[in-house]
Design brief:
five-stranded antiparallel beta sheet; 464 residues; single chain; globular; alpha+beta
Length: 464
């Protein structure tokens, strides 16, 4: 393969001079794993994998890529489900896995500085050891990296109260396609001067620049947390309970809904006796409360709201063991969908909470009409339910029709194509439906200004 009058072998020598012989992979067997992530069965071919150790090395690598017009895709932990970190057409992969240092935890000002390749759960553990709290911990935290979380503006089950990753980013070190390196902001809580360059890179999916360091603001660690689990005779009653919670003075840290189809899939897989799965109820709600000032009052209020809609008991858990038991079904759905199964298509649409019932019922009707197996669960209080189409061999046309209709349903009723997983390559056409006209045109002009040769993560985000 030749890139602008330079061979892959010559490029490898140049990159090895920057980051060392063992950190430039060209062997097809060695690069294979970097051509896939958690997205369906997508497998791309990487021309080369480069693993720098510092932001300076990232800068030197991008200068070479810019000079020779070489496509390069930044990659974190490979936890994405939209193909956002997959190289197209034999392009380079810039793996940030070796940028893995936590550089500073400032207990006085309440922030932490870390490199982009730090594993999310490692950062959260370090923060908690210092008596602080970082609330946005995605379900992939055991292997996702903070740079990827920022690039996708990842969420978590706590997003209904605490927001998303971008709400905690104070400052970023970024390297542009040209190799220029700079900090986007300042390590302070309030800034009212100039454009929000930090916010520009949050959720940019690696198409504007490469994030190499991040500064997160931290919160005090909640002293107590209580889980509530209850079930509902109908989906409508479960959605009504969510709406009532939203309209109350209650501020739960999580409101997770598990629909009947998800219960039927996960309960047999997990085995044993799971709470509230013995009845033929249509949905469960898992509610988490952590209000430090009036937790007991919040517990009473939540109980009053749920009792107006539920069909059975409210189970309460505060110890670690109790909370694990109440949440075992919710957090076991992912494994139930993947073990001994071909995989799933994660539709990550987010809709107004006022449309939650119609959206869930509509997706179930679409999948029934197209004869597609699906499960639905997720972040009910912010309208970000995950619709998972369970893949079966030879049914690609059915999935495509169902996906088109589900995104159409969400977009026609005030929704968006992604609440927390990003656009990547999988959802570009639907993103184009959401961001029509001037908004999309402005985004493309910003991309052209910052990456005029289009070398950063090509084929992602923008519809073709």
């Amino acid at each position: 393969m030749v890139y602008m009058n330079i061979s892959r072998k010559e490029l490898a020598v140049m990159f090895k001079d920057i980051c060392g012989e063992s950190n430039v992979l060209t062997d097809p067997e060695a690069v294979f794993a970097y051509g896939r992530d958690q997205t369906l069965d997508l497998q791309c071919e990487a021309g080369m994998v480069i693993k720098p150790r510092t932001a300076g090395e990232v800068s030197d690598i991008l200068k070479i890529c810019s000079n020779f017009k070489i496509a390069i895709t930044p990659r974190g932990g490979g936890s994405g489900v939209t193909g956002g970190a997959l190289p197209l057409d034999g392009g380079m992969v810039l793996s940030l896995e070796r940028l893995d240092r936590i550089l500073e935890l400032n207990a006085t000002d309440g922030y932490i500085i870390a490199e982009a390749g730090v594993i999310t759960s490692d950062l959260c553990r370090r923060v908690e050891e210092a008596g602080y709290f970082f609330p946005v911990e995605p379900s992939s935290s055991a292997f996702s990296m903070i740079g990827g979380n920022i690039a996708e503006n990842a969420g978590s089950i706590r997003s209904c109260k605490y927001g998303k990753t971008g709400d905690y980013v104070l400052n970023l070190e970024v390297v542009l396609a040209s190799g220029e390196r700079f900090w986007t902001g300042n390590n302070v809580e309030k800034v009212s001067a100039g454009f929000d360059l930090t916010g520009l890179f949050v959720g940019s999916e690696g198409v504007l620049g490469v994030i190499t360091k991040a500064v997160y603001r931290l919160l005090p660690k909640p002293e107590r947390e209580i889980y509530l689990l209850t079930s509902f005779a109908s989906l409508r009653k479960a959605c009504d309970a969510v709406t009532a919670i939203r309209r109350s003075s209650l501020h739960p840290s999580a409101v997770e809904m598990i629909c009947r189809n998800a219960i039927e899939l996960a309960a047999p897989f997990l085995g044993g006796t799971l709470p509230l799965t013995g009845e033929r109820d249509e949905a469960q709600l898992l509610v988490a409360l952590d209000d430090p000032q009036c937790l007991d009052r919040s517990l009473d209020l939540a109980g009053d709201i749920l009792q107006r809609h539920m069909s059975g008991d409210i189970l309460v858990g505060e110890s670690a063991a109790q909370k694990e038991e109440l949440s075992r079904l919710r957090f076991g759905i992912g494994n139930a969908m993947t073990v001994n199964r071909p995989g799933y298509r994660d539709i990550d649409a987010c809709v107004p909470v006022s449309f939650l019932y119609e959206y869930i019922a509509g997706t179930e009707a679409i999948c029934a009409r197209e004869n597609v197996d699906m499960v639905c669960f997720g972040h009910a209080a912010d309208g970000n339910m995950h619709t998972m189409l369970l893949i079966q061999e030879g049914q690609a046309d059915r999935y495509r029709r169902a996906t088109d209709q589900i995104y159409g349903l969400a977009l026609q009723n005030g929704g968006v194509v992604s609440g927390e997983h990003g656009v990547g390559m999988l959802q570009r056409q639907y993103f184009g439906m959401q961001m029509q006209g001037s908004r999309l045109g402005l985004m493309k002009r910003i991309k052209a200004l910052m990456d005029p040769d289009g070398i950063l993560n090509p084929g992602k985000l923008f519809p073709q």
